[in-house]
Write a structure and sequence with these properties.
The protein has eleven helices and eight strands. By secondary structure, it is of the alpha/beta class. It is globular, with a radius of gyration of 18 Å. It starts with a helix and ends in a 6-residue tail after the last helix.
């Protein structure tokens, strides 16, 4: 997919570090924790060509589907260990001048990746592609899932109840350093009495983005460029319409209406990456428990293969 390692690298070093995160924020076994293995079995390891270093998956404790006393976070012990281990992996990769590609788990990986980028580059910005805003205050969370509140934590809009290891690295972003593409969760937020952050961050809904994925991607990168020349790309696959991708969430969970197609998402991501400055990429929320024939895993691998020539530019 990419140039040979000797053509575009320094002394032939691998430019891309693939980091698998076997973590499920809901405490299921395996749930999303099975994503790295399932994606590799579907061919993910080959899509970046010779420029890639396949890192070992993070090693994490077994899941506990209970909320912690004090913070209220679900599966807290594994969450904190995941964030700490991933922070160190991403920081090491960035410090060595490589491009970390984080796959598996859920949006809580941003609690590691964004602070790592900030600590290496001096400041960070985020292009956030997701069907949800993920800015639920901790005190309003009915589930305790960190993946529903990571944007609020990164912005410092919540976190007083967070464990000290999280508070030590937060907040990590000013509101202007975030560009959101694809949210369509207004009914979800209304039911939980969670306010939107559209008045604080640059946000374009799924309906808007679907009309011009390339254009809105360019605008998103132009917006955050004022806050940092290096930015992180995060894709939560629930930004896709259910007819295109349904292997996310939990059995019986009500899915969001609308969303992007694979084609629209690919156009968006390629346009964003061609705008330069992307330091790393995370791809999350695939649940292989909901994909018995692994057709969704193959769709994800095909999508990454389309993007791979633009990654690490």
């Amino acid at each position: 997919m990419r140039k040979p390692a000797t053509a575009g690298n320094i002394a032939g070093r691998a430019l891309i570090d693939m980091i698998g995160v076997p973590f499920d924020g809901m405490g299921r076994s395996p749930g999303q924790a099975g994503a790295p293995e399932a994606l590799r079995a579907a061919g993910l390891a080959a899509v970046f060509g010779p420029d890639v270093a396949m890192e070992p998956d993070l090693v994490l404790p077994g899941p506990v589907a209970q909320r912690a006393a004090g913070s209220g976070l679900l599966n807290e012990r594994a969450l904190l260990q995941m964030v700490d281990a991933l922070y160190r992996r991403v920081r090491s990769s960035l410090s060595a001048g490589r491009f970390p590609f984080v796959y598996g788990a859920d949006c809580s990986v941003l609690l590691a990746a964004v602070p790592a980028l900030r600590d290496v580059a001096g400041r960070a910005a985020l292009v956030f592609v997701d069907g949800h805003e993920d800015a639920t205050p901790m005190n309003l969370s009915t589930s305790g899932e960190a993946a529903n509140m990571e944007i609020a934590l990164l912005l410092g809009l919540t976190g007083e109840r967070a464990p000290q290891p999280l508070r030590d690295r937060l907040p990590a972003l000013p509101p202007g350093a975030v560009a959101m593409l694809g949210p369509r969760d207004h009914l979800f937020r209304q039911a939980a009495d969670v306010p939107t952050v559209a008045d604080q961050v640059w946000l374009r809904s799924a309906d808007e983005v679907s009309a011009d994925p390339r254009g809105y991607a360019r605008m998103a990168v132009e917006h955050i460029a004022a806050y940092g020349s290096r930015w992180w790309l995060h894709i939560d696959l629930d930004v896709l319409t259910r007819s295109e991708f349904a292997a996310c969430g939990a059995t019986g969970e009500v899915m969001l209406a609308g969303g992007l197609t694979w084609q629209q998402l690919a156009e968006l991501v390629v346009s964003a990456l061609h705008s330069r400055g992307c330091a790393g990429w995370s791809l999350s929320i695939y649940n292989p428990d909901l994909d018995p024939d692994r057709s969704a895993a193959r769709d994800i691998v095909e999508f990454v293969a389309r993007i791979a020539p633009s990654a690490g530019r």
